Automatic annotation (TrEMBL):
Enzyme class: transferase
Gene Ontology terms for molecular function: alpha-D-ribose 1-methylphosphonate 5-triphosphate synthase activity
Top-level taxon in the UniProt lineage: Bacteria
Swiss-Prot/TrEMBL keywords: ATP-binding, Nucleotide-binding, Transferase
Ranges for domain ABC transporter: 5-246
Record's protein name: Alpha-D-ribose 1-methylphosphonate 5-triphosphate synthase subunit PhnL
Organism per entry: Caldalkalibacillus horti
Family the entry assigns: Belongs to the ABC transporter superfamily.
C-alpha cells in the first residue's frame, strides 16, 4: 500500500539567540510512515519532541532537515519541508487538519462562527456550513448558550472541545492531534472517540500524540515511542506486537 505520509530523517533545531547562539534539538533522525485510513499514535516523555514532529508536518515549524513526503490530492506527492507558504495554506484549508491543546481563534469571532468559517474556506455553502457546524458543536456537548459567545471566556475543556469541532467538521484527509483529550472528562473523551472512529471509517488518516495511553490504545492501529532521538514502533495491526527501531 502506498504511504499517505512518509517522514524521513526529520530534524528540527532551535537557536537561542540570547544564549550565545545555543542550539537546541527538537527532534532528530525521525522516520515513520502513515498509510491511508490509518491512525498512528506517538508517545514519549514531555520534551521528547512529539509536538515538534506534528508542528513540523503542519509547518508551524519549518524543519531543519529531512523530508516529509505527503501524497496530496491537490499537488500530488509533495515534500512539506520544501513546500511554499501558498501550498501549505492550500493544504491546511482542504486536506490537513490540526487539533492543538490551545485555542487559536480571532478575538471577535463567536464559537459558531469559528467552526462555520472552517467549512466556508472549503467552499461549503453558508446554510450547509451552519447546519454541519451546529451538529458538530452539539456532538461535543458545547452548550448552545455558548455558540454566540467569544471563546476567550470558555473553560479549558470547552476550548478544547471547540478546537476538536473546528478541525473535525472539515473531515480532513489527514488529521494531526496534539493531546486531543487533555482536560476532558470521561464523557467528553467518549464523544471524541466516537468522532475519531467515524472519521477513520470515512477515510481520514490520523497521527496523534497522547499521554492518555488507555485512550490511545483504544483507537490507534500502530504506535510509536519517541525517546532520545529514536522512534520505536509497536505494530498492532492484525494483533501483531512487534517493536523495532525506525530512525536513528
Amino acid at each position: 500500500m502506498k504511504e499517505l505520509l512518509l517522514v524521513n530523517q526529520l530534524e528540527k533545531s532551535f537557536t537561542l539567540h540570547h544564549a550565545k547562539e545555543k542550539i537546541i534539538s527538537g527532534c532528530k533522525g525521525v522516520s515513520f510512515v502513515v498509510y491511508p485510513k490509518e491512525f498512528v499514535g506517538i508517545t514519549g516523555k514531555s520534551g521528547a519532541g512529539k509536538s515538534t514532529i506534528l508542528k513540523s508536518i503542519y509547518r508551524t515549524y519549518v524543519p531543519s532537515g529531512g523530508q516529509i513526503m505527503y501524497d496530496s490530492t491537490q499537488f500530488g506527492p509533495i515534500d512539506l519541508v520544501q513546500a511554499t507558504e501558498r501550498e501549505i495554506l492550500a493544504l491546511r484549508k482542504q486536506e490537513i487538519g490540526y487539533v492543538s491543546q490551545f485555542l487559536n481563534a480571532m478575538p471577535r469571532i463567536t464559537a459558531l462562527e469559528f467552526v462555520v468559517e472552517a467549512l466556508l474556506e472549503m467552499g461549503v455553502a453558508v446554510h450547509q456550513a451552519e447546519r454541519e457546524a451546529k451538529e458538530m458543536l452539539q456532538h461535543f456537548k458545547l452548550p448552545e448558550s455558548l455558540w454566540d459567545s467569544f471563546p476567550r471566556t470558555f473553560s479549558g475543556g470547552e476550548k478544547l472541545r471547540l478546537n476538536l469541532a473546528q478541525a473535525m467538521v472539515k473531515k480532513p484527509r489527514i488529521l494531526l492531534l496534539d493531546e486531543p483529550t487533555a482536560s476532558l472528562d470521561q464523557q467528553s473523551k467518549e464523544a471524541v472517540k466516537e468522532v475519531l472512529i467515524q472519521l477513520k471509517h470515512e477515510g481520514t488518516s490520523m497521527l496523534g500524540i497522547f499521554h492518555d495511553l488507555d485512550f490511545m490504545t483504544s483507537v490507534v492501529d500502530r504506535q510509536y515511542q519517541l525517546s532520545a532521538g529514536l522512534i520505536e514502533m509497536t505494530d498492532k495491526l492484525e494483533g501483531n506486537q512487534i517493536t523495532h527501531q525506525v530512525g536513528s
